[in-house]
Request: fold
Amino acid sequence: MHLKLRLVLIAFAGIAIFLLYINIVFLDSLSRAHFKRMLPESVKALQSLEKSSLVDFRLVQSVKHRTYENVQALFAGKLDFTLNPFGVYDLPPEPLHLEVLFGAYRRRGYHTLWLEDLCWQWEWGLVKDLLALDAELPMADRWRRFQAALERAEVERVDLSLASCHVLKSLNAKDPFGKVPVVCFNGKLGDEYFLDYLHLYHGAMAAKRQPYISFFMSNTAHDPSGLRAKNLDSVLPKFIRSADRLSNTLTILLSDHGNSYGPYPEDTVDGKLELYHPFVFVVIPDQVRARLGPAKMDALRGNQDRLVSFLDLHYTLLSLVDPKPVVPLEHRQFRVNERGLWQPVPEPLHLPGLRGATHQPLVLRSAR
Reply:
């Protein structure tokens, strides 16, 4: 698309005619409490940012203790608590509808990038969640099937994701879940390759003044022992510190749920509660804060201690490119704003007699 047309579309979307790049880094199976336990250098990196640059949603809650449902809520704004969870080894009842969010951005001239550390030739990851998995087909047909699913989902590029098959094969593994103590290649952590690639991608797109929204899912913390998450602490601080220096860039660092495997979530109360207590950190450089304006920034900061979910985050992202987002009737029971976290969400009801995993009172979102 021609640059002038791209800028016109962005202006129409109400983004104050400036280019806004969006980086989403998604750490699977890592609760807020475990992030603080295992990643002290990453915590220091977050604390080193200017206070005005960091927004920390301290009461964010998971939709379910599984990735599929949380990503579906984030990208499609879809929740259905009437459905029984599908089996871990079964195909989902429907594909991830990434096209709801990615499609809205592409219609405004954005590029879309999806990165993951899973092999598309195996049974996990985007190929499964888009219902493109069919291991009985010849490899060439499987690739065409996957490409068609990516196109329907408005995923323009997967780039470095395709190297994951080669990296895992070098480790005699088909996936990184638990059996591999560390995912590395040529002496470099897998996550470092992806985070470096995001930096290079941003530089290339910024040089051409082409807006993008990127999503990187890391499965390093998807480990029954809970110990492998420590590997992230050697690469994540650099990425966090650089996020505040990326021009016109909104960076979202989040997880979907806590560790759902092993004795900690099975045998302890804190482990069970951490399943539903992920984290969401948003890094907003001064240039982006100025463009967003004080009303939106005040709402973001005010929502830091409100009960929020990935459904709120969905509308937060969607409203940046959709001038009139519509909250369907079934979502109104969750008191969701059409502008997401750019508007104040209802204050929580505190239940002081009950204590959560971090020894804070449990809260419910007010229905008032």
In short: The two ends are 46 Å apart (CA to CA).
